[in-house]
Structures are given as C-alpha cells and as structure tokens.
Amino acid sequence: MAFFRSISRAPSLSRSTSLLFHVKMMSNIPENTVYGGPKPQNSNQRVTLTHLRQKHRKGEPVTMVTAYDYPSAVHLDNAGVDICLVGDSASMVVHGHDTTLPISLDEMLVHCRAVARGAKQPLLVGDLPFGTYESSTSQAVDTAVRVLKEGGMDAIKLEGGSPSRITAAKAIVEAGIAVMGHVGLTPQAISVLGGFRPQGKNIASALKVVETALELQEAGCFSVVLECVPPPVAAAATSVLKIPTIGIGAGPFCSGQVLVYHDLLGMLQHPHHAKVTPKFCKQYAQVGDVINKALLDYKEEVTNRSFPGPAHSPYKISAADVDGFLNELQKMGLDKAASAAAAANEQIEKAQSHGEASTASD
Asked: Which of 20, 70, 84, 183 has the fewest CB atoms within 10 Å distance of its CB?
C-alpha cells in the first residue's frame, strides 16, 4: 500500500499542472483578454424531486418560471427559483407564432440546452412539443429520452388528460423519467377547445379538471400544472392531490405558481406580444420600456458619433508603433489610409487628454 501511495504522490505536481491545463482548455469561461467572461455559477445543490416533496409537505409555495435561453436561465438561477420550465410557449414568445403548435422538437432542444447551461440550481423541465408524443407510447418515451439526453433536462412536461396522454405519461414514468402533467387550458389542444379558452367554468368541466389531475397523479406524475381554471376548482384539485399543483391563471390556492419570464418582466411591447400576453399575468417590471429607451439612446449616440468614445475604445497602440504603421502604409502607396490613421490617432489622443483633464478637475 505504501508503494502505491508513493507512486501516486510522485507525479502529483505534473498531473495537477496537466489537469489545470485541460480544465482551462475545456472551460467555457474565456480568458480575460477581450471579454470579461461570465462569473462562475454558485455550486449549491440542485433542486430535486425530493426537495419539492419536502416543500410540499411543509406547505411552502413552489416557484416556477418559464424561460427559453441562457441569459434568462442565469437570472432564474441567481433568484433561486425552484423550477425552470422550458416551455413550448417559446413558439409564441420567441419565434413569433400565434400558437404553440409550430415549434419542433429540434427547436425545443436548442432552447433546452441553452437553459441547461445557465440554470445550475433549479429543477429543469422541458415541454414535449405538439406532434412528438401523441402517436404511441414508444414515440412519447423516445421524445422524452431525447429531451433529457440531448436537452439536458431533469424532467418533462406533457399536456392534456385524454386516455392516450395518461398512458403516455405512465409509460414515460415507467421508463425512469419524471413527468409533470398539465390540465385546464392546454394550448396544444386549441383545435379542440376552440381557442385559448379557460376551463372548469361549469360543473362538468370543473369535475373533469379534478378527475384528470387525479389520473395524472395515478400515472406517476410528480406535479400538475393547472392553467386558466377558476380558483375554487384549483383549490379542490390541490386539496385532493398528494403532489404539488402549479397554478398559472388558477388563483392563489395552488401549491405553487408559474409565469413566463418575458411576461412577468413586462419585456415585450410589440402588438403581437400584447396579443399573446395573458390577462392573469402580473408584470413585476417594465423592462420593455427600459430596452426601448436604451436602443433609442444607442441609435442616437451612433448617429451623432458620440459612441464609442475613449472609454469604449480600450485597445492601445504606442506612439512609436503608430509612426511605424504610418510609414509602412505610405510605402505601400496607401497615403489615404495613413492620413486616416493619423487623424484618428490625433482625435483619440485629444479626447483622452480632455477626459483626463476633466477627471483631474473633479
């Protein structure tokens, strides 16, 4: 044993150096030359189904936000949101379609991978898009496997409570994949529902919501989304289920809530997005107004040539190298280029001198 320990200690320095080199080469954090690079993510433990069950038992509300890309995923990660749903609503919010139906599995996988790179702590749930799980249980399982293996998700969500959807959910669970159900308004079923219509507004429809939620629980779902149903219906479903309900437009009596990232931030002001932003969404910010103002300010500064100024022209060339550069340009017969470079250098130096003088006077 001592022999093996001595062998393992001997090359430790070289192995450490080699490991550091390979880690550096594989890192997605760029060296600090041009870009500062993203900050390392917090390595706290990822939210799991066990964590969700514990919160549910304690009566602690579950938070879920729908996001579609790396920047929004990082924001969710920093905020400590429990679940990040990569929803097929990307079809409407990101791709500009009027419904969720057009988005493909390959497109969804791109969104899933981007989110997985940014959200290190939330439980990641990927929607199964329309047309990728309805034909058979084998199709459903194959699609779910791709969402986990290729999309980097922890679980999947599927819509509806028809017998075939319940069977698909059960098959996916039996394949070892966690499933979140979805009842009430199920956007993939707008052809049958006659549009984006709330559910549970009469006795038969309300009972159907509760019964379907129970069937999804029986199929093995770890949670159920209740969308656009009256609060008493959501309260009834929540009270009878042993798994968490996540409400969206379903009132305050669910086990948790979900909103779309862009909606809750008030991010988009375009008429199309106003058309698809639901009535139940609370806007916690008016980020769209901030974005619009920033873009207008940028356009104005570029137009009047105030951007970029010295502060945003950080890369220097020494006076000696400037002279040598000008000489070489002239030798090449590029007098116009040499004049332009000389004028630019003079202008930058004046601007920097002015900036330094202003700083000194302050």
From this structure: 20
User: Which ranges of 37-104 does DSSP label H, i.e. alpha helix?
Assistant: 49-58, 70-79, 90-93
Tokens of 196: 């984006």
Measured over the CA atoms of residue 110, residue 259, residue 170 and residue 196, the dihedral's sign is: negative
Residues 6+ apart with CB under 8 A from 210: 233, 236, 237, 240
Q: For 222-240, how does the pLDDT look when each residue is reduced to its tens digit (9 = 90+)?
A: 999 999 999 999 999 999 9
CB atoms within 10 A of CB 139: 16
- CA atoms of 56 and 59, how far apart (whole Å): 5
User: What is d(CA 330, CA 333) in angstroms, rounded to the nearest whole number?
Assistant: 5
Average pLDDT over residues 187-216: 81
DSSP state for residue 310 in the 8-state scheme: G
> What distances in angstroms separate CA 146 from CA 113, 139, 156, 173, one per listed residue?
11, 11, 10, 14
| Main-chain dihedrals φ then ψ at residue 224, nearest 5 degrees | -135, 130
Residue-by-residue DSSP string for 171-199: HHHHTT-EEEEEEES-GGGHHHHTSS---
Is the predicted pLDDT of residue 321 greater than 90, yes or no? yes
Positions annotated as catalytic residues are 227
Task: At 47, list the tokens.
Answer: 């939210």
